Amino acid sequence: MKFIQSISLKQIASIALVGVIFIAAVWLSQWLSNSSETVALVERFGYLGLVGIGMIAGLNFIIPIPAATFSALYSAAGLATTGIIVALAVGTLIADMIGFWVGTKLRLLLSDSYPTITKYAKQVAAGSSWYIFIFVLLYAAFVPFPNEAILIPLAISGIKFRYLILPLIIGNILHQTILIVGVDTLGQALF
C-alpha cells in the first residue's frame, strides 16, 4: 500500500505512456507483417516510410520482425540499397532512443521502490566504458533481437545515452547491411 501512495502523477503518466508505446509497437508490428499496404507505404513516402518501418520493427521486442526482410519490396519500389540501409538504421536508432527513454522512466520508478536494485545497477554501470561500447556495438550488429533488450537495463543502470550513440549507429548500420545485402543476394540468386 505504501508503494501505491508513493507514486506521483508524473510517474503514473510515465507508466501509462510506456504501456501505450508497448501496445502500439506490438499492434503496428502485426500490421506491418500482415499488410500489403507496406509496399504502398514505401512507394508513397520513400525513405521516410522506411524510417517509420525501421522504428516499428526496432521497437517490437515481443515478436521481432526485421524490417530488412522486406528489402526486395523496397528495391522493387525503386529505392537504392544504400538508402534502404541508412533509412532503416535511422529508424532503428530512433526506436533505440525511445527504448532508452523507457528505461530512464523505469529507473525513476525503481529508484524509489527498489533502492537495492538501483544501487546494484549503478555499480554495474561503473565498469569500463570500453567494455560497454564493445558490448553494445556487437549486440546491435550481430544479435537478431531488438536493442531495447540491453538498452532498457543500461538506462536503468544510469548510463548516459551519449555514450551509446556511436556503437548503436555503427552496430545498426552493420546489422542492416548484413541483413539487406544478404537478403538481396539470396533473392537475386533464387529469382
Beta fraction: under 5%
How many domains? The number is: 1
The helix count comes to: 10
Helix/strand structural class: mainly alpha
What summary fits the major beta sheet? none
Rg, alpha carbons? 18 Å
The amount of helix comes to: over 70%
What's the mean pLDDT score? Answer: 78
Write a structural description.
With 191 residues, this protein is mainly α. It has one domain (2-190). It is 80% helix and 0% strand. It contains 10 helices and no strands. Helix 2 crosses helix 4, helix 4 packs parallel to helix 6 and helix 6 (81-113) crosses helix 7. The longest helix is centred in the middle third of the chain and has 33 residues, at 81-113. The radius of gyration is 18 Å and the shape is globular. The model has no long low-confidence stretch (mean pLDDT 78).
Short characterization:
By secondary structure, the chain is mainly alpha-helical. It is 80% helix and 0% strand.
